[in-house]
């Protein structure tokens, strides 16, 4: 089944189009049914693989003429008659490997594409290596792609991911031991990624940010990069032929860059929606989840189905009880269509056995036509069954984790704390029976965030529970320090961050009566209420042109500190775009 092609109006669609053109030797990708592609080798580093993997499956790479896709750092055999397309980060290590490839004339021609801009020093190193290896004529192109971000969905992207062996940006920014060089490198990296997003979309955003923190530094760098690029008439990324005429002057989106500390509870809150639970419990990464398939084997499930998985598209943001019911309805509908096929088989006089099975090929065409809207084709029915089985396995694993870690109880407790409600039991009694240390810390931190006026004795009780479970107390101490040196307490009191509601509502009368395999006995059936987070309020305040001083976001650009300077820069921006 062909994948659904994303629209060019989305960031994901534009990134896919840019990658396809890059793989097609930096030419617009053509239909393989019209012209045969140039067969080539795709060489990537780990980050390039992470960018391409959620967007272009192996089948589409084959259609673009990629016969082999290899990692840069691994040993590769010489293919002197084959062109090679490189897609790598311009690091010293990667440049050194490409230098060796050029010196040894590893491939017939070289199309070197860097994820972020390649500086002059490294470019000169590549030129020297090509000269030494007599491969200057083989270097066809060296292109800065500005694609250092990962599009997971049409409306969701992430910058470079961090694994268990690397610190997150939030940790680096708030770590007192972080050097000035490390901080500058991190801010530049984030700014490069955001600039690449703007360049890929072909838009010049209106930038807003709080002042006095890393968000302001990032905003200033993004603004400077955009202004410098707009001044460069030869390499202007915002006036390419693919950009709609007049877009720069008529459509300028808002880019709000905020500090994570403004909304810590959302990051820590135990979730109850399907996609968030998969990410939290099963460690969803790159739209893929690796888990036990129920038969003792580890299996990887790909949830980025390009729009073909209607159940995921419709219910990924729904509460888990709603998803469980939807899965059961899908199972029943599939079984109904399967039974209809069997009845048609019997009506056509087809029995069992190898002879009848051999006749199924000619029978299927007539049978599917008679099924009409019920079954469009057998491959579609089999694909639907595969997706149902996939979601059934994932949901069953989620249910086991919910029961084991009591996630339904944690969600309800946190919801009550956020809406300043009364807990049925003291918090220390609620978390004393928890077995997962991370769950204990998350609840304890949310408790401290949503109760800024706690007394010393109440705080000490929470600390004692953490100590009894032999957990690291540094997170709790960090929250206390944040509250002492910032206006986080005031922000929490003035916002609706701790005003979200939650409630119980039976959703399973029909679900349970049908004897579902996902029968949620012993699990509370909670339906969360929608709430506006601090970030949502910031956006609403800016769009409504109201005074945002109450939420700490000045109505200025990243580097404007007065109204006069802001008006001057707006005039300058109009002159550049004109």
Quick overview:
50% of the residues lie in helices and 11% in strands. It has 578 residues and is an alpha/beta fold. Belongs to the STXBP/unc-18/SEC1 family.
Q: What oligomeric state do the depicted chains represent?
A: single chain
How are the strands of the largest sheet arranged?
2-1-3-4-5
Overall mean pLDDT score? 77
Q: How widely separated are the two ends?
A: 46 Å
Rg is 28 Å
Percent in strands: 5-15%
Q: Structural class, from secondary structure content?
A: alpha/beta
Tell me the total number of β-strands: 13
Number of helices: 25
What's the shape? globular
Number of domains: 3
Helicity level, as a percent range?
Answer: 40-55%
Largest sheet: 5 strands, parallel
Low-pLDDT segments, ≥5 res: 1-5, 242-249, 491-519, 546-578
Structure description:
With 578 residues, the chain is of the alpha/beta class. The protein has 3 domains: 11-146, Rossmann fold (3-Layer(aba) Sandwich), CATH 3.40.50.2060; 162-258 and 553-578, no CATH class; 265-528, no CATH class. It is 50% helix and 11% strand. It has 25 helices and 13 strands. The chain has helices at 11-23, 46-52, 58-63, 92-103, 120-132, 169-174, 180-201, 214-231, 247-250, 264-268, 274-281, 310-315, 320-347, 354-358, 360-371, 378-405, 407-418, 427-432, 437-450, 456-468, 474-485, 488-494, 509-513, 534-543, 563-577, and strands at 40-44, 66-71, 79-88, 107-114, 139-144, 150-153, 156-158, 206-208, 254-256, 288-292, 298-302, 502-504, 526-528. The protein has a 5-stranded parallel sheet with strand order 2-1-3-4-5. A two-stranded antiparallel sheet has the order 6-7. It has a two-stranded parallel sheet with strand order 8-9. Strand 4, helix 5 and strand 5 (139-144) form a beta-alpha-beta unit. Helix 7 packs across helix 8 and helix 19 (437-450) runs parallel beside helix 21. The two termini are 46 Å apart.
């Amino acid at each position: 089944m062909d994948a659904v092609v994303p629209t060019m109006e989305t960031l994901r669609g534009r990134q896919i189009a840019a990658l396809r053109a890059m793989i097609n030797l930096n030419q617009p990708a053509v239909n393989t049914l019209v012209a045969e592609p140039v067969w080539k080798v795709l060489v990537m580093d780990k980050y390039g693989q992470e960018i391409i993997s959620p967007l272009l499956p192996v089948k589409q790479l084959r259609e673009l003429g990629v016969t082999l896709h290899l990692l840069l750092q691994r040993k590769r055999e010489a293919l002197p008659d084959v062109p090679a397309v490189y897609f790598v980060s311009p690091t010293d290590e990667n440049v050194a490997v490409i230098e060796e490839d050029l010196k040894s004339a590893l491939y017939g021609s070289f199309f070197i594409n860097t994820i972020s801009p390649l500086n002059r020093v490294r470019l000169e190193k590549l030129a020297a290596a090509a000269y030494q290896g007599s491969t200057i004529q083989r270097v066809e192109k060296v292109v800065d792609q500005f694609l250092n971000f990962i599009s997971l969905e049409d409306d969701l992207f992430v910058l470079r991911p961090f694994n268990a062996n690397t610190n997150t940006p939030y940790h680096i920014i708030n770590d007192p031991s972080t050097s000035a060089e490390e901080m500058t490198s991190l801010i530049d990296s984030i700014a490069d990624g955001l600039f690449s997003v703007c360049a890929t979309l072909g838009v010049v955003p209106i930038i807003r940010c709080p002042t006095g923190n890393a968000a302001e530094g990032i905003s200033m760098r993004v603004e400077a990069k955009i202004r410098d690029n707009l001044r460069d008439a030869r390499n202007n990324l915002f006036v390419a032929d693919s950009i709609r005429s007049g877009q720069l002057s008529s459509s300028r989106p808002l880019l709000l860059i905020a500090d994570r500390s403004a909304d810590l509870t959302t990051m820590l809150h135990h979730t109850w929606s399907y996609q968030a639970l998969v990410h939290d419990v099963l460690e969803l990464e790159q739209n893929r989840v690796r888990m036990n398939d129920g038969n003792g084997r580890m299996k990887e499930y790909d949830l980025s189905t390009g729009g073909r998985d209607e159940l995921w598209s419709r219910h990924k943001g729904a509460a888990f009880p709603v998803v469980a019911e939807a899965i059961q309805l899908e199972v029943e509908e599939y079984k109904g269509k399967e039974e209809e096929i069997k009845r048609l088989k019997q009506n056509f006089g087809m029995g069992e056995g190898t002879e009848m099975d051999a006749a199924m090929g000619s029978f299927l065409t007539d049978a599917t036509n008679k099924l009409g809207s019920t079954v469009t084709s057998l491959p579609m029915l089999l694909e639907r069954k595969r997706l149902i089985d996939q979601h059934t396995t994932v949901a069953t694993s989620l249910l086991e984790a919910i029961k084991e870690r009591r996630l339904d109880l944690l969600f309800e407790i946190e919801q009550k704390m956020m809406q300043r409600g009364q807990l049925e039991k003291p918090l220390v009694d609620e978390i004393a029976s928890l077995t997962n240390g991370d769950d204990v810390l998350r609840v304890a931190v949310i408790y401290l965030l949503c109760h800024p006026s706690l007394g010393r004795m109440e705080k000490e009780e929470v600390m004692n529970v953490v100590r009894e479970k032999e957990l690291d107390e540094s997170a709790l101490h960090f929250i206390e320090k944040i509250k002492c040196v910032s206006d986080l307490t005031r922000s929490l009191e003035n916002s609706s961050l701790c005003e979200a509601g939650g409630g119980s509502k039976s959703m399973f009368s029909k679900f349970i009566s049908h004897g579902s395999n996902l029968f949620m006995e012993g699990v509370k059936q909670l339906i969360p209420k929608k709430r506006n987070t601090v970030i949502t309020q910031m956006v609403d305040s800016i769009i409504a042109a109201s005074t945002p001083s109450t939420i700490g976001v000045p109505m200025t650009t990243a580097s404007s500190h007065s109204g006069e300077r802001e008006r001057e820069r707006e005039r300058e921006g109009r002159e550049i775009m004109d």
